[in-house]
Amino acid sequence: MEVNCLTLKDLISPRQPRRDFAIEDGENVQKENIFVDCSRMAPKTPIKNEPIDLSKQKLFTPERNPMTPVKLVDRQQAEPWTPTANLKVLISAASPDIRDREKKKGLFRPIENKDDAFTDSLQLDVVGDSAVDEFEKQRPSRKQKSLGLLCQKFLARYPSYPLSTEKTTISLDEVAVSLGVERRRIYDIVNVLESLHLVSRVAKNQYGWHGRHSLPKTLRTLQRLGEEQRYEEQMAHLQQKELDLLEYKCGERKRDGCAESQDPHLLDFSEPDCPSSSASSRKDKSLRTMSQKFVMLLLASKPKIVTLGAAAKVLTEGSQDTADHSKFKTKVRRLYDIANVLTSLALIKKVHVTEERGRKPAFKWIGPVDFSPSDEELVDVSASVLPELKRDTYGHIQFCANQKLARHGSFNSVQASEKIQRKVNSEPSSPYRDKQESGGYSLEIGSLAAVYRQKIEDTSQGGAFARRRAMPPSGGRDAAAAPLPSRSADSESCASPPANRVLSGAPTDSQAFSAQNGRGAVSLGPVASDAAESLQPALLPGQPLVYVPSAPLFMLCGGLQEAPAPGAGPERDSRGWEVMAAEHTSSPSVPKRLGEERRPQEEEGPATKRQSRDCEEGPLSLVMPKKPSDPTDIASSKNMETRGSAPQEDLRRNGQLSAAKEASGKALANCFVSAEWGNPSRNSEIEKPLKENESTKEPSLLQYLYVQSPAALNGFNVLLSGHQTPPAVGASPGPLPPLSVPCMVVPSPTLGPFPLVYSPAVPGRVPAAPGPLPHAGPAPFGLSGLGSAAPLLIGPAAAGNPKPPPLPTADAPLQGPRALSLSPVTSRSLRVTQPESPVYRGHQASVAKPQQSPAPVTPKSVRCTQRDTFFKTPGSLGDPVLRKRERNPSRNTTSAQRRLEIPSGGSD
DNA sequence: CTCTCCCGCCACCCG
DNA sequence: CGGGTGGCGGGAGAG
User: Judging by beta carbons within 10 Å of its beta carbon (0-12, 13-18, 19+), is residue A201 exposed, middle or buried?
Assistant: First the structure.
């Protein structure tokens, strides 16, 4: 396991090394799991891995240790790829002093340093050619280093709704180390989180994690403050101004939309009373304060969409205009930081307000509209959610359970599922039944529950709220907009990447955000790509993708599509929503890679640019098939059920049941467009059904459970299709039996180039197949080069644990991540899947594995392929073994911390 | 080119 | 006074 020595090979294949070193560092595999994951992000280059040694050192010597491989960036020195990097390298080579300096820095930035250090020594030597190339490949893109991603990683470490009993402390050092970033970056995140009371400072370097429990309250407070401050007016005013400006530029466009209130003076926002924010001179400018103000602005503004420019103006205290340009610029920079964090929290998403002239980036509030969360409400929420859940399958069930958990603080997957089942039962045609039949799968999937849990959380907030949105306190418009109650409106608005389209399509006024929003959504259809993107960053609760922080899982709900039911043209927007989300997410890289960017155009659009077809449709379509219903919508309601759910359900059922046998058969296929990658024809087939559904309106919900590759995966993400799952379940009806779920492995953004690998679940079948390389999966996906993946099994122990891993209440959150237990097979399959990307391999397994199943994980062949890089965060990949270990150890958030602690101690 | 926003210097301020 | 915090803005990546 410990590979201390780095070899060129190691360097080349970052994965292993990383892990190793991660492990080493942590020694504690445990902690590192998380760590690794986190760190992984940075990583891009395999080189980092090498640092393993360093890491070890790290343990002992802070100086060296600190250097984490993670940061590729730092590597600059080492990294030749960029001119800048080259210069640095040269410089450092030339000047020892400089080098020392860098090292020092490195000390402070453990992770980064590792890389560097490592690189220094190694790079120089190694970096030669091929190495360089690889590095380049691996090299993390800016996006990979983004605060948004970092924040996601950060959030993934902690349960959204920690049990009251569990006190989670956040050690900045640990976090920084584990995530492989400078502490400075952590401050940025923490400050924003603190502004929302998600964390609070406990002591030096110590923050306490509160989770989202009080978020509604905080938001309510901020909203109130915002109202008091008249931010709404201010924003309106500013927006108008902007619009006006635009108009000038564009011509006429703006018109209504925002209200124009004109009180410029509104600007005086003194600081809000915001709880956390204290404002002192310096503090006034603090990120915390800005963050609160920003949220206030969003909540106060009618459309709940603000451009950073407007926000900056407002926040700039009054200086609406950009008077001080520099000042303004600075403000905007900070706002980006804040926006990234809020995006990670799924509270906002980037959208583009389009105007003819162009689209302006803006951020739309997608968080809960209703801030009053009562248990009852929650209950309601769950109820509302149920419908969707039904659709979704077990995953949904889990959600319900999760919600409850979240709500009650205790998470009992079983209980939750029972309740859910009841409900389901009550409903005749609901898919649930099937699910129920499968019974246990929800339980089995218990681990997944964690994932869902998040979703629940989101739903609770987003979803539930979404519902409320219909009668939103502030956003009446939304309600109006959306035929469907819920979030539709909001969601719609959100989107926009395609703003262009949207705009173009719509007569919207440039300014009219709201209008745009709605529209945009519609056009957005093409979410798929986004979906891919979405992987990365944020997820919006309401949106199809749900990001599960604790466990880096995302749920993709096909349901997104709920589609417009009956009348809702706008509903479609939901899709748009997704898209938007995706966009804003920024993680774009992933999608792009996968599908390359797909445009959101029409769904099927051939138009999609890229490859799309295959890819796009595949993944994208999967994600959001034409019908769009957003989760939020769903969540919001039962509406869905009422509306069109029936058809869906039928579909689902049919699909599921039959499918189950067929396994993923078509349904799956449908779901996973990706499969089609290669075959468009297939897609067509699939699509047809989908379309039909659409027509029916019911969305076939495709749900995907997205498992981000946290630690182990080196960046790979796995998409499990909810739909299919059922079938899969069917195959193995036993409650406990391991589920084989079709899954799609999505390369992390980093992976970019790599296609998604989808492993159809072969129901029941556990493929043995496990070659390191992908064997053709049942379902063809065609990832051309890639092999198809083996089916992913999710089960308590893959092996045999019949029981789903219990999710202890406390653990629940934690479990999230771990929750999934993947059968070893899975891991293998994953691994196999992508030859190219080595990363795939074990991660998943590691991720999944919860308690029991120890075995599996080890990938037989851990091969690192060259490209580990993708994922590569140093930590992430690591050895399979390590991974296993890590994973195995149950990771709790707490554990994570603990883990961190260990390292931290070392590091510091 | 513009938009983003990473990076890290260095000042503030607390213990 | 040392070190944790975090404002700030240069400058570079991405589009």
Answer: middle
Q: Which amino acid is at A788?
A: S
CA of A73 to C1' of B7 (A): 9
Question: Alpha-carbon distance A268 to A628, whole Å?
Answer: 41
Residue A104, CB, strand C, below 7 Å: no
CA gap A829, A822 in Å, rounded: 10
Task: Give me the amino acid identity at A486.
Answer: S
Distance (Å) of CA A755 to CA A235, A346, A352, A828: 42, 26, 28, 18
> Are A211 and A197 a contacting pair, CB within 8 Å?
no
CB–CB of A777/A763 below 8 Å?
Answer: no
A73 touches strand B (CB under 7 A): yes
Residue A729 to residue A661: CA distance in whole angstroms: 9
Q: How confident is the model at residue A215 (pLDDT cuts 50, 70, 90)?
A: confident
pLDDT of residue A781: 33
User: Residues A439, A733: contact at Cβ < 8 Å?
Assistant: yes
State whether the Cα torsion A199-A200-A201-A206 is positive or negative: negative
Strand B near-CB residues (< 7 Å), A 359-378: 361
pLDDT band at residue A371 under the 50/70/90 scheme:
low
Exposed (0-12), middle (13-18) or buried (19+): which is A504, by Cβ within 10 Å?
middle
The answer to whether A43 touches A72, Cβ cutoff 8 Å, is: yes
Name every residue whose Cβ is closer than 8 Å to that of residue A360 and which is 6 or more positions away in sequence: A242, A246, A307, A309, A352, A353, A354
Q: CB within 8 A of A275, min separation 6: which ones?
A: A197, A218, A221
A455 contacts A546 by C-beta, under 8 angstroms: yes
Please give the model's pTM, rounded to 2 decimal places: 0.40
d(CA A787, CA A792): 14
Query: What is the structure's pLDDT at A348?
Result: 82
A105 touches strand B (CB under 7 A): yes
**Residue A825 near residue A803, CB atoms below 8 Å:** no
At residue A238, the pLDDT reads: 62
Positions of chain B reached by protein Cβ under 7 A: 3-10, 12-13, 15
pLDDT tens for A688-731 read 333 333 333 333 333 334 444 333 333 344 444 333 333 333 33
- What is the C-alpha separation between A641 and A253, in angstroms, rounded? 39
CA distances (Å), origin A889, targets A30, A41, A347, A825, A882: 6, 21, 31, 19, 11
Nearest Cα to Cα of residue A305 among A224, A362, A240? A362
In the 141-180 stretch of chain A, whose C-beta falls under 7 Å of nucleic acid strand C? 141-143, 172
In the structure, how far is the CA atom of residue A574 from the C1' atom of nucleotide B5, in angstroms?
Answer: 29
HEC profile of A391-437: HHCHHHHHHHHHHHHHHHCCCCHHHHHHHHHHHHHHCCCCHHHHHHH
For residues A350 and A611, the model is more confident at A350
The reply to whether A281 Cβ lies less than 7 angstroms from strand C is: no
Is residue A845 within 8 Å of A830, Cβ to Cβ?
yes
CB-based burial of residue A327 (10 Å sphere; 0-12 exposed, 13-18 middle, 19+ buried)? middle
